[in-house]
Amino acid sequence: MQVAMSKPDPADKPGAPPKPQSGDSRRGAIAGLIIAAVILGVGLWLARDLTAASKMQDCLMSGRSNCNVIEPAR
């Protein structure tokens, strides 16, 4: 029985710096960050819109007829 000994890879030395990672992992992280920002923006827009609709509905349910929002003149 003969055991073949392979030569060690020079990059596997204990003191050698780690191999740099490919750009794919950064692309995934950036894509995830962009998706998270879009979801956050949509969530904030939806919360603001639902709050305005809720205030309007509360006004109408209380029996008032002048529930329109009056914008100040510019």
Order of helices and strands: H
Helix percent band: 40-55%
- In total, how many beta strands? 0
How much of the residues is beta strand, in percent? Answer: under 5%
- Stretches with pLDDT under 50, minimum 5 residues: none
- What is the helix tally? 1
The average pLDDT value, as a whole number, equals 80
Classify the secondary structure makeup into a structural class: mainly alpha
Radius of gyration: 31 Å
Overall spatial form: rod-shaped
* First-residue to last-residue Cα separation: 94 Å
For the biggest sheet, the summary is: none
Secondary structure blueprint with pairings:
Elements: H1 24-61
Notes on the structure:
This protein is mainly alpha-helical. It has a domain at 35-60. Helices cover 51% and strands 0% of the residues. It contains one helix and no strands. The chain has one helix at 24-61. The radius of gyration is 31 Å and the shape is rod-shaped. The N and C termini lie far apart (94 Å). The mean pLDDT is 80. The chain crosses the membrane at residues 28-47. Keywords: Membrane, Transmembrane, Transmembrane helix.
Describe this structure in a few short sentences.
The protein is 51% helix and 0% strand.
Question: What key attributes describe this structure?
Answer:
membrane, 74 residues, single chain, transmembrane helix
